[in-house]
Amino acid sequence: MPLKKRNNYYFVDAADEVKRVSINSRRYLGNKYKLNDFIKSIIDKECGDFKVFADLFAGTGAVASVFQDKQLILNDILYSNYVSYDCWFGNEEYSDAKLMDFIYQYNNFLPVEENYFSKHYSDTYFNKKNCRKIGFIREDIERNYNQHNINQRERNILITSLLYAMDKISNTCGHYDSYRRNGNLEKELILGIPVINQTKPVNKIYNEDATELAARIVADVVYLDPPYNSRQYCDAYHLLENVACWKKPEVFGCARKMDRSLLKSEYCTVNAADTFKRLIKNINSRYIVLSYNNMAKKGVTRSNAKMSDNDILRILKTQGEVEIFTQDYKVFSTGKSETRDNTERLFVCRCK
Ligand SMILES: C[S@@+](CC[C@H](N)C(=O)[O-])C[C@H]1O[C@@H](n2cnc3c(N)ncnc32)[C@H](O)[C@@H]1O
């Protein structure tokens, strides 16, 4: 299909528009997009020239995205994030024209039949029409993948496009712990084409527990951005995870969550410091860079950090000298616990 590009839009057959989406056009708790300049400037200055950058709690992949001149290692416990890493940083070739064709057709199709997604989620986070569309699109992506019409990278690019489109219109304040009663369900689901800035096709992506993975990789700089409070990411993003995995599990409760027992993070529990100690011991790297904010005892209990500064310093110092860099930053919290003097800290450990 011939493509034309003008400003921020591609045109299919010069007639209809397909919007572009970038890696940072999604909402994600603890996303470091706005701190990227700070993080990059410290790493550039402190770690000098290096080849391999590992982001073991990569979330959206925002931090890794500013190190695309390096070989990247990305990892997250959520499969929905892993799928996105393959989209933004994967190594396999993909066809822009083919993807554009799929996205154009998805945007213009109106399914009338019920499916897994519409059955369980209609008129909650999305209206019935959008739910039918989401379920149809996800099923169609898998069917085309299984029939070898699209390769794995193309599958993951299409899933990422769907997840980003869902995030744009969901009837929530950005996460899926609950949906708004009487919220606006009328927004239309529109998929965009991900803008992929591929530079080095040698990246590695994983969907594992960071503590275990750390023992099997070698990098020059290992960046760590674990959850710092008791909010589990699998609770906040269960719905996107469900769509990405597409195993159609039973869902329950008002929020329609599936069983997430295998996705719970130790970093959100009282075991955080012990788990962090094992992680640090496993790391084989010249530098360890940790993001951890100063919410130790500032917000409501759920927002309080799970590791104290004493714990962090004691553990990091087993690997080498540690220096702390700070930047004031407005806390992510949407509610009562918001504190304005929040400081984002970067702990840089020069390993022995
Ligand atoms: C603070 S967020 C990272 C945000 C990321 N730096 C960004 O800019 O988008 C923490 C991430 O750690 C992931 N996570 C939690 N426990 C994990 C574990 N044990 N292993 C790997 N990832 C984990 C969560 O799913 C979440 O995406």
Quick take:
This protein is an alpha/beta fold.
Q: Level of helix content?
A: 25-40%
What's the order of the H and E elements?
EEEHEEHHHHHEEHEHHHEHEE
Per CATH, the architecture is: 3-Layer(aba) Sandwich
The total of helices stands at: 11
CATH fold name: Rossmann fold
What Rg is obtained from the alpha carbons, in whole angstroms? 21 Å
Which molecules are bound besides the chains? S-adenosylmethionine
- Please count the beta strands (DSSP E, at least 2 residues each): 11
Residue-averaged pLDDT: 91
Cα separation of the termini: 55 Å
Instruction: Indicate how many domains the architecture comprises.
Output: 1
Query: In this structure, how is the largest beta sheet organized?
Result: 7 strands, mixed
- Shape call: globular
**CATH top level label:** Alpha Beta
